[in-house]
Specification:
Elements: H1 3-39, H2 45-69, H3 80-89, H4 104-113, E1 116-117, E2 120-121, E3 123-124, E4 133-138, E5 141-156, H5 162-185, E6 192-202, E7 214-223, H6 224-231, H7 237-243, E8 245-249, E9 258-260
Parallel strand pairs: 5-6
Antiparallel strand pairs: 1-2, 3-5, 4-5, 6-7, 7-8, 8-9
Helix pairs in contact: 3-4, 4-5
């Protein structure tokens, strides 16, 4: 074999070795990239739905101030009757309403019963044509959210801490209202109820201070089966609380919510 042919063969072999090495490295890099992509926290539609619901609920704090602090004529609170009409007249072909379409009659019946929330008259802090319901996925299961509910009650920040105020609202308003939710939604395919309720807080030692009266919003995520067991006296109110998720956006939190542990007073 001539020297030229030997040299050509060596070059070809070297090229094959380099090519195979590069292919192996690319394959390894691709595999590492796939592993890294899987390791990244993924933002799912469920996360987005939850974040959007929280954002929509946080807007109730501003609305509460306009209604109960400033009595703004352009922001009147809505009654359950008015919101029921809005629900029946809503365009269910809209993207944000399509999920609610099969539940219109059920939710209308629920609204018809929600004139009060426990011991207080409840108001809906919504604009015209706004529907205070949303369907999300929580723990992989279908959840109905009712947000922008408000009561005019104002708690004294000197006498009660933020958690104690939240406890009062749960005991006086949310827990008594669960009978209405169970009666209207027990046979639905919802697995959780997520309820947002906004109320007031104030330092009553101060009279003339625009920044003194501030709203707070509490959210409670309740397992439907636990709710039914509570109403059947199989769980105490504290046991129901312990099985639920409680989120609080207090007077200084802006639109942020923090999970809290609540012990009933």
């Amino acid at each position: 074999m001539s020297r030229f042919n030997k040299f050509t063969i060596i070059i070809v072999i070297l090229l094959l070795i380099v090519s195979n090495a590069m292919a192996a490295e690319n394959k390894k890099g691709s595999a590492n990239k796939q592993v890294a992509e899987k390791a990244k926290p993924q933002t799912t539609n469920n996360d987005y739905d939850n974040m959007l619901a929280m954002l929509m609920a946080s807007g109730a704090k501003t609305y509460w101030s306009l209604v109960f602090e400033h009595s703004h004529k352009d922001y009147p609170p809505k009654s359950n009757y008015e919101v029921g009409i809005q629900l029946l007249q809503a365009d269910m072909n809209k993207k944000e309403n399509k999920q609610l379409s099969p539940y219109v009659d059920t939710l209308h019946e629920l609204l018809s019963s929600l004139d009060t929330f426990g011991k207080d008259k409840v108001y809906f802090l919504v604009n015209k044509d706004d529907i205070p319901f949303r369907i999300i996925t929580y723990n992989g299961k279908k959840t109905i959210v009712i947000y922008k509910l408000g009561i005019s009650t104002v708690y004294n920040v000197v006498k009660l801490t933020a958690k104690e105020r939240a406890s009062k609202v749960i005991a006086s308003n949310i827990i008594p209202a669960l009978k209405i939710f169970d009666r209207n939604l027990n046979k639905s395919d919802f697995n959780y109820y997520k309820i947002f309720l906004t109320y007031g807080s104030k330092d009553f030692r101060i009279d003339e201070d625009q920044d003194n009266l501030k709203p707070e919003t509490i959210a409670m995520i309740i397992d439907k089966s636990a709710c039914s067991k509570f109403l059947e006296n199989q769980l105490t109110d504290q046991e129901l609380i312990d099985k639920s998720v409680i989120l609080l956006s207090d007077r200084d939190a802006g639109s942020d919510f923090s999970r809290i542990k609540v012990n009933l007073q």
